[in-house]
Amino acid sequence: MENKADHILDFRETITAFGLLELKQVMREMGTNEVLEIITRDPTSRSDVFKMIPASSCELVEAEFDKEAGFFRIQLKKILRHSA
């Protein structure tokens, strides 16, 4: 993964309810077009992440599994919400 992240959350040890709340807080505070990188060992965490963040607020930049290190990296870019 070569994209540079503006923010990094490392959930390699565990992704808890507190961690998911931290994720929501970071996304809330991020500026438009900033990138958040989430690192986790648990493949099910990816679906947890997408359940916590509305699809309209971000786009997936990259997602990969690092076989050597044994963890997933997910990068999300915050996008500008358009009001109706």
Largest sheet: 4 strands, mixed
Ends distance:
35 Å
Quaternary class: single chain
Trace the largest sheet across and list its strands: 1-2-4-3
The percentage helix is 25-40%
Q: How much β-strand is present in the residues?
A: 25-35%
How would you describe the overall organization of this protein?
This protein has 84 residues and is α+β, with helices and mostly antiparallel strands. The chain is built from 2 helices and 4 strands. It has helices at 17-29, 45-52, and strands at residues 7-11, 35-40, 58-66, 71-78. It has a 4-stranded mixed β-sheet with strand order 1-2-4-3, with helices on one face. The longest helix has 13 residues, at 17-29.
Write the layout of secondary structure elements.
Elements: E1 7-11, H1 17-29, E2 35-40, H2 45-52, E3 58-66, E4 71-78
Parallel strand pairs: 1-2
Antiparallel strand pairs: 2-4, 3-4
Short recap of the structure:
With 84 residues, the chain is an alpha+beta fold. It has helices spanning 17-29, 45-52, and strands at residues 7-11, 35-40, 58-66, 71-78. It has a 4-stranded mixed beta sheet with strand order 1-2-4-3, with helices on one face.
Essential attributes:
four-stranded mixed beta sheet; alpha+beta; 25% helix; 84 residues
